[in-house]
Amino acid sequence: MKKVARTEIPRKAIYRLSVYLRCLHRLENNRIHTVSSEVLAKAAGVKSTQLRKDLTYFGQFGTRGLGYDVKQLIEMISEQLGTKSLQPVVIVGIGNLGRALLSYRGFEREGFEVVGAFDVQSSRFPKEASIQVKSMKVMPKVIDEHLVKMAILCVPPTAAQEVTNQLIEYGVVAILNFAPIVLSVPDEVTVNNVNLAMELENLSYFINE
Questions:
Q1: Partners of 13 in the β-ladder
Q2: CA-CA distances (angstroms) from residue 170 to 134, 166, 196?
Q3: Torsion over CA of 13, 19, 22 and 26, rounded to 10 degrees?
Q4: CB count, 10 Å around CB of 79?
Q5: Residues near 128 by Cβ (< 8 Å), separated by ≥ 6?
Q6: β-pairing, 133-134 with 112-118?
Q7: SS3 of 30, please?
Q8: Rounded to an integer, what distance in angstroms lies between the CA atom of residue 96 and that of residue 113?
Q9: β-bridge mates for residue 92, sequence order
């Protein structure tokens, strides 16, 4: 079975693959071994035609009348998303949000391992924590040792671009940005912005229609 290049998969389809993966994990936990496109699509909140189109990026598979093998589909999507093995990630900026993310225990379940946490005021954090908050000065060493390509950015907007430049210089190519600022990055670097105020504004529009 021939698989198309990752670059050919639309960004929105990649997001939907993440949704499908969570639905499949729930099915697996309930000991369901096969699932039809209609059932999986309903669980994911999409049309079955959309789901089938998204899954064609893996090639043609599945059994007519029986559906998809849940375990096989989990493995295929995990491989496509790069989470079949633990993906190392660092968190930069340990304010209120950074601390909340640092205390979250679900990262490994989703295929990610936080290997470092960094802040300009690292000395004010307890050293006995499960993940010690370290100085920004040692960040390049940790990124290099763990081959980190992904970072979560929780710094103030005034520092976001400078820290982003540093991360890119050290080899990071994917950034989840919580700072309310548009980052300037090279074409080969991917940034996903999380702006809670904008999301709430979007919801506000619909409840005020």
A1: none
A2: 16, 6, 28
A3: -120
A4: 13
A5: none
A6: parallel
A7: coil
A8: 20
A9: 118, 153
pTM of the complete model? 0.72
- Listed in sequence order, the DSSP H helices in 45-156 are 48-55, 70-81, 96-103, 139-145
Please give the Cα distance from 90 to 102 (Å, whole number).
10
Q: What is the DSSP letter of 64?
A: T
- Mapped onto helix, strand or coil, the DSSP state of residue 129 is coil
Torsion over CA: 194, 197, 200, 204 (sign)? negative
15 vs 50: CA distance, rounded Å: 13
Cβ count within 10 A of residue 140: 15
Residue 119 pLDDT exceeds 70: yes
Query: Residue 46 in contact with residue 25, Cβ under 8 Å?
Result: no
Single-letter amino acid code for the residue at 181? I
Neighbour tally for 60: CB within 10 Å: 8
Give the closest residue to 124 by CA, choosing from 116, 132, 112, 113: 132
Q: What is the pLDDT of residue 64?
A: 62
- pLDDT tens, residue by residue, 4-55: 444 467 778 888 888 888 899 889 888 888 898 899 999 999 998 899 888 8
Residue with structure tokens 């040792």?
145
pLDDT digits (tens, 9 = 90+) for 123-178: 887 775 678 899 999 999 999 999 999 999 999 999 999 999 999 999 999 999 99
User: pLDDT per residue over 80-103, tens digit each?
Assistant: 877 767 889 999 999 999 999 988
